[in-house]
């Protein structure tokens, strides 16, 4: 059964002893227990030991509180800023993608606030562009054109975020007491009519599942393409450098 949204009642605070910072902090604590979806003003009041009207004084509705929580999550986002070492661009970008995915996968609250709720906010866009500047610069130094560098990092970012959000939505919607996706898929596959699918499923390959195997394959496809673009651009850059050298007056 789904986890029931409850909050441990604390000793009653004195009137006027709560402030917005306390409310936001308490909301994060409660969301870790009951999820963002099940967070409510009455539950938060019990969690904080205040009347619900004390919360409404600062946040007129749950949406206002979630906006404040999203702003806090964006300011305190915990995954490392993207750094691409031009000399080891593939390894550093690969590591960054996995670190970013791990951070969101291990923090459903961060995923819900930043990737789902805050995905279209101006603040999230500004943060993303600021982080993207350094990553794109590293890829340009590694040998990609600015356009290809932008598209490469953008593809990695979309791949990470899409994988995490799909996994989060799957966890939200699937029945906790029912079979997981892989079990349902295995029951659907007929080994006689689908021998390839049966053999691959037994090895851990699953269709449309945002697992590590599928994530790694997609990520490597993006990085392989970037590597090809860098290799294709090197002869042209060397020829251009030779032309510049020969044209220099002696």
TrEMBL record:
Q: In its UniProt entry, what is this protein called? A: TetR family transcriptional regulator
Q: Which PROSITE patterns match?
A: HTH_TETR_1, HTH_TETR_2
- What GO biological process, any one, is recorded here? negative regulation of DNA-templated transcription
Task: State the superkingdom.
Answer: Bacteria
Q: Any idea which residues the entry calls the DNA-binding region?
A: 40-59
Q: Which residues form the HTH tetR-type domain?
A: 17-77
Does Transcription show up as a keyword for this record? yes
Q: Which GO terms describe its molecular function?
A: DNA-binding transcription factor activity; transcription cis-regulatory region binding
Q: Which InterPro entries match?
A: DNA-bd_HTH_TetR-type_CS (IPR023772), Homeodomain-like_sf (IPR009057), HTH-type_TetR-like_transc_reg (IPR050109), HTH_TetR (IPR001647), Repressor_TetR_C (IPR004111), Tet_transcr_reg_TetR-rel_C_sf (IPR036271)
Sorted keywords for this record are: DNA-binding, Transcription, Transcription regulation
SUPFAM superfamilies assigned = Homeodomain-like, Tetracyclin repressor-like, C-terminal domain
